Structures are given as C-alpha cells and as structure tokens.
Amino acid sequence: MLRMLVLRDLQKTYTKLRLGYLWTLLEPLGMSIVLWLVFSVLLSRHIGQQPYALFITIAILPWWWFTKGVAQSTRSFKRNTNALRISLLPTEIWVLRVVLVSMIEFFFSLPIILVAMIFTRTIPGPLIIFYPVAVLAQFLLMYGLGLLVASGVAIIPDLDRIVRICMRALFYLSPVLYSITKIPDHVQPFAAINPLVGILGLYRIGFWTEEIETPWHYAVSFVVVFLVIGAGLFVFKKLEPRILKGV
Amino acid sequence: MARIRLTPDLSTMIEFAGVGSSVVRQTRRGGGGRKHALRRMAGEFQNETEWILRDITTSVGVGESVALIALPDDGREELLRLAAGTLIPDTGIVRRKDFVVPFVGVVPALDRSYTFRQNIYIIGGLLGMTPSEVESKVDRIADEADVDGRLDKYLGNARPIVRQKLAWAICMAVETRAYAIEQLLVVGDGEFREHCWQQVEQKRADGVTFLVSSDNDDDLLRFCDRAIVLGNGSVIAETTVEDGVALRKEMAPTSKRKKEKARIEEDEEGEYEDL
User: Fold this and answer.
1) Nearest chain A Cα distance for residue B48, angstroms
2) ipTM of this complex
3) Which of A20, A53, B20, B147 has the fewest other C-beta atoms within 10 Å?
4) Which residue among A67, A86, A171 sits closest to B105, beta carbon to beta carbon?
5) Using 50, 70 and 90 to split pLDDT, how confident is the model at A235?
C-alpha cells in the first residue's frame, strides 16, 4: 500500500512537469554551481576540502532531500485530510510516504555526483562504503523529525513557518558549505549535537579521509538520531487523537 | 504501530464503553470587562472545549443492522468514525471484533488527479484491502460502478453520481464483517438503487453488521433492526426503528454546530523552496 502511494506521488510529479526528471537534476545542480562560484571562485576561501565543487555537491544533494522532506512532512496530514478520514491504516504512513518520496528523488539526483566527479577528476576511496550508512541514518533522522513536526502542527498551527526558518538556520549551522574540521576547536563540542554533522561527514569520508579526524562526532550524531526518532514516535503517539480529530 | 486493535473474542461486534469525544473550538475573545480589553482588540482567540459525545455506552451485536438516529451534526458522524477507528475517543474505549469499514467521507477522498483505476487501488487500500485483493476485484468494481470503459482516464470532474457509485462499489468490495455508513446506504438512481438494495440485503443475510445513519427514514425503516437515538451527544433511547424515527421528528432542530466544511485547500504546488 505504501509502495503504491509513493509510486503515485512520483508519477504525479514526473508527468506534470514538462522537463520532468531533468528538474530533479537541475535544481540541486544549479544550487551547487552557484555556491561553488561564490565560495571558491569569487571569495576563494578554503572553508572546505578540495576540490570544492565536488565537496559541496556531495552535501547539497542530501541537504536538498532533508529540507524537502521535512518541509513537506509538516503538511503531510493536512494534505491528506480526506484520505485520513477513511484510512484504516496506521497514521504514520503519511509521514513515511513523504520521506520516502523525497528519498527516491534524492536517489534520482545522484548522477550529479558522477558529473562532479568527472568534472573534478576525483575518485572515491574505499570508505565510500559508509555512504549507504549515511543514507540510512538520514532516513531515520528524517522519519523522527517528520513525525515530530507533522504532529506538532496539531497544536501549533504556524509550525510550518517556524520549520522553514529553522531549516534556513540549519543550512548554515550544518557543515554543508564548510568542513567540520575547519571550525574553531572550542565550538566543536556544540557542533556535534547537530546530527547532520555526523551524517554529512559520513557522506564525505569516502572522498576525504580527513573527515574522520573526529570520530566522536559520529557517535554523538547517532545518539541524537535515535533520540529524535524516539521523541518523534512519542510525541506522535500522544498527539494522534488530536491529529485525527483535526481532519 | 497499527492504530486499530481488534478484540476477536468480543461477543458483540462493536462495543462503546463510556466513550466521549470533544473538540477544541477557537472563538474570538468576547464579552466585556476591562481585564481582557486589550486581548479582545488584538483579536486573541479563546479555546473552548465542546463535548460532542458524552459517555456513550452501547453496543452493536454481530449481524445486527442498527440505525443511528440523530439530528445532523449531533455527533453521529463522530460516532460512526469512532466505531470504525478513524477517530480516537478522548474518554472511554471502543472495542471491535473485526474491522469496521467506514463509509463516511469516501466520496471526497476520491482524488481527481488520479485515474479511476488508481482511485480504486488507493481507496481500497485505505479501507483495508491488500493490493493483490484489489487487483483481483478491480474489474468487478469497475463493472459495478459502470466505469469499466474509462478505467485509465482521470477522474477529473466526473459527475457526483459517478463518484458515489464508484465509492460505493469499492466499499462493498471489501470483505468485512461490519460497515459504518453515513447517509449513503444506497446511492445512484433508479436501477442502481435497486442493485444497492440487493447487495446490502445480501450482505445482511450473510451476517454482516451495519451501523447506519441516514436522514432518509424510509431507508432506515426498511433496513434496520433497531435504533440508537442520540441527542445532545448522549444516547437517549435504544428502541425500535419506528420509535426512533418518531423521536427524531420530535426533536427540535437545534443545530448547535455550523457546518464547518471549509477544508484547508490542498497546496500542491509551491512547497519548500528552502535554502
């Protein structure tokens, strides 16, 4: 059933738009190019690893998945009001659906990394095997966060605006544009609380082994991921009656 | 994980024990007094809890057809949804022996941007059918709803009667032991109504339980064994259908709640755009 809902969603997006699949590639690609131009060519700061174009592309794709998924989660119950009213299925599937759809779109956009690799003539090392781990961790994190925000809307109606602001803040607070190894030592412990630090790091260590420098980042990130998913499930269970009432 | 728990060893089909359901309504702060003047000017909202259903204790036996008689917006839709489990009670507990298929709001759940076939799959799935089950029934459903010629066309602006027939056919295709039906016991026109009657009578003969709420007294009189009468959110009588219908006529139409069907419009486009 879930598979069916996800397939329908994908079908909808890809048949409605004229360029269809190309947009999945063009959107993050455009973003990467702009950021690369600004930070590498115009400012020529060394805030990340070299080659910077690849460095940023690798983080932009999961980030795109992250914002898209979480932002859509806030509306996942509202948008499916009519279906929720008759659904005998677990309520969680509406959040899961949004997260899965955005994940598949993320998979579709992966060829951009290949393009970036060819463009910068870089090949990944053996640690690339951590890439799927990162995907899994991000999926779990997003499911937890998605449940959290989707049920939060039941008590705070303007939560989706708050989420949007938080996302923007998180973009700069997460090591998307820069490497976590480049931030000052005394803020390192605080940075680790952000689970994206570990996840983005895992995406990157296949290319830059320097990213392993601080293994405890990963440990902290994983703990936070599990905390988030626990909190998500808990809050959702508490608010489920109200969610159903609101529809 | 699953929201709906079944108690297979229940002696009745659906059992309500002290069930209550409330809504929190936001009203503009009104009234006089200096204390809240500023808040009133700011248009602050006040939360008001209104109990739609209070302490409902009743049951529906296996194979019974029960008429749920109440004035519109007097908690009958909520009770049907509680019976099916698409609403969770604030107090008390609802137990059910088997899945209760809600025929409450199936018609609006049909999605115009999907084809007829996709709609059958999705609605069927929501009502508890497995995809393979739908697969085997899709032709029969289409045939019944008279849409077999355009299964792969988009639903679009299909006429209401077509939607009703489709929703009805999907619901009836679910293999279930119980239904909770709002208004649309029979749908469509002339011939189709007869067909509906045959089908529901057949199901009733097979021992399927029905909990029906309808404004059409004749339908209820024809179909139901007994009646549960709701008034002001509690059960005021459990009698024969004749008495129930008579009771409804006596009740003054004090429509407390206004129809608030202003659904939040779907915002399909223009989401996220973050970064």
Assistant:
1) 14
2) 0.75
3) A20
4) A86
5) very high
